[in-house]
Amino acid sequence: MNALYVIALVVASGFALWRLGRRTRFFLHRLQLSGYKRLAYRTSLAGPLLDLRARPSHLVGALVLAAAWWMSSLGWLSDFALGFSLSLAWSIAFISSRRYRRDRTKKPLVWTPRMKRLGVACCVMAALLLIVGAQVGRSMDGAESLVAWFAGFWLADLLAPVLISLAAALLAPYEKHVHEGFKTNARAQLAERPDLTTVAITGSYGKTSVKFAVREILAQRFPVLATPGSFNTPMGVSKVINNDLNDDHRLLVLEMGIRHPGDIVELTDIARPDIAVVTSVGVAHLESMGSIEAIAREKLTILDPLGPGGTAVVNADDKRVLDGSLKKRNERPENERFGVLAVSTTSDKGDCWAENIHYGVDGARFEVVLRSGERALVSTPLLGRHNVLNILLAIGVGLAAGMRLRQTVRGADRIEPVPHRLSIRKERGLTILDDAFNSNPVGAANAAEVLGAMPGRRVIVTPGMIELGEQEAVLNQVFGNQIAPNADDVILVGPERTLSIRDGLVEGGFPEERIHSVYTLFEARAWIEQHCRPGDTVLYENDLPDQFTESRA
Q: Which domains does the chain have, with CATH numbers?
């Protein structure tokens, strides 16, 4: 066999394997970003056929294979010439994996034990397809055997997203067994700690910010353990309880998130709260929950485990939260009712409210007032009116835990901005407002208002808001209206996804020449480096996961 022929064959096979590896890794990352939920994963792959699920190179590869088979059957070329041409054409068709080469991912793939198991399962299934292609090729002669060999690569590459979904389905029973083990251990740990007070926080917006504020306030008096970051799933909560809870802790602060009906019940089955916080009911996750009423029912489920000595700390400014909490309390027999501590930023309709609120670029100052008449002054570096509510909720938890108002305020003064939730920093002379985490209609409106109060040229970078169901376009258009009076330049990340924001901007009288559309956050940053000067302010409002990045191809 000619050495050149062997080299061409090896190079072509190498390109095919390299491309298959990149494509498999890309879709594994998609599955992880989708929370390992197969339905969410499949939804993330929606779009033009020749974009993610298949590529133009698959079409070219199919044509190359068909042409090679046809010419081989007609005997137009020698086996050597045909095999060499096939290897060369295949290498050219599959040398590029540009669509899967995202070196600067916002949230990189993490090779957790679960991801490693999925990766091995995908490799095994892809190898089986290659083996089938090789076995079919062995029964053929000449170049036709090479066609069968490359057809195996082509099929494995094309089916990579399907193989990953299949691997997730096959491993689902084992993963469920692993998860149940973590949850059982967590329940056992808590059962041994009757002295431990558990605080559970849920809501459409503000959960993480309230959690960190609660931790800071409670830490003025108690040893506290709080879940880090956005650890708000059954596995995240269980891992923290299993790995970090010790005998010194007296309070456990947990964030509880939802995406689907029943999520709160699963979480409270792991950790039954003594104090439950409901921050808000909004349209976040409307797409998966179906309706605002379903979201309200799910969020308020966190109150069901509260006993007679328990307390619900709720947002009185949100009618669904306040009315739903009072209804749940009043439906119980009087000797089984939990307490309700309502907080408000706008009036004295709660048990704890804010007065004399003053906002500025350095944060906020306001007075906390209790129904008893007691008052205290809070000064915080947190920006935006929604953070006043977050602090009030945290103070409410402190009061429910037995702290005095003065103690809670000392902790409130020490609360630092949560990263990526309207935090402020300086960068090359620019003022950066970082509100990149999980934008929502309330927070986005507040962020735009804060931007409008800042000095210098004001620039907002946003891909808009997601997971808002049928209201997504309308709410993003409203957001465009809210941006219009508060910005000088707008950078929209994702030209197609942000059309409704553009419509809202134009409707609000914003100059079209000041609207700049880009495909990625990295392009937006390049624009800022080129056009912004020291003293200007840039607001980053939301940063979508990589699966929402639009493709030019």
A: 3-173 (no CATH), 193-412 (3.40.1190.10), 423-548 (3.90.190.20)
